[in-house]
Amino acid sequence: MLSGIILAGGDNRGMEGKNRALLELGSKTFLERQLSEMRKCCNELIIVTNDPFPFMRVVDREVRIITDFYPGNGAVGGIHAGLALAKNPYIWVVGGHMPFISAAAAQLMLASMADGCNAAIPSVANRVYPLHGLYKKQCCESIERLMDTGSTSIAALLDALQWCEAGENVFQMNQIDCRFVVEVHTLVDYERLVRESEAVNREAQPDISLSSSWT
Question: Which residues belong to any copy of the MobA-like NTP transferase domain (predicted)?
Answer without folding.
Answer: 4-159
